[in-house]
Amino acid sequence: MLTKTGLIINLTPDALTRRFQRALIELKMPPYRFHDLRHYSASIMHAMGVPDQYIMKRGGWSNDRVLKDIYRGTVADYEEKFVCMTNAYFENMHHKLQHRNEKTAD
């Protein structure tokens, strides 16, 4: 479906950046770089548990060094979710140990 040149759009990188920035302003969104979308996508996929080889394929990376060094950021929503999951696990384990100790004391 791509043209013979392989181009999806007929814009220079600078023109694409300028159009993206204008769109953010028009939509009243905070400023960020177009490239940040790639980082965010990789971070979300990692947080969702998508295996690295699929993240690498989608992002176009030939090895996982860049993926591991740069693109494994944390996402605040997922960070909170996993902190809560971890805390719940240890609270449950503590509750079970207390319950077991109460039974052996009887």
From TrEMBL:
Keyword Disulfide bond on entry: no
One GO term of the biological process aspect: DNA recombination
Domain of life: Bacteria
Keywords, sorted A to Z: DNA recombination
Pfam families to which the protein is assigned, alphabetical: Phage_integrase
GO molecular function, one term: DNA binding
Residue ranges of every copy of the Tyr recombinase domain listed in the record: 13-72
Full protein name: Phage integrase family protein
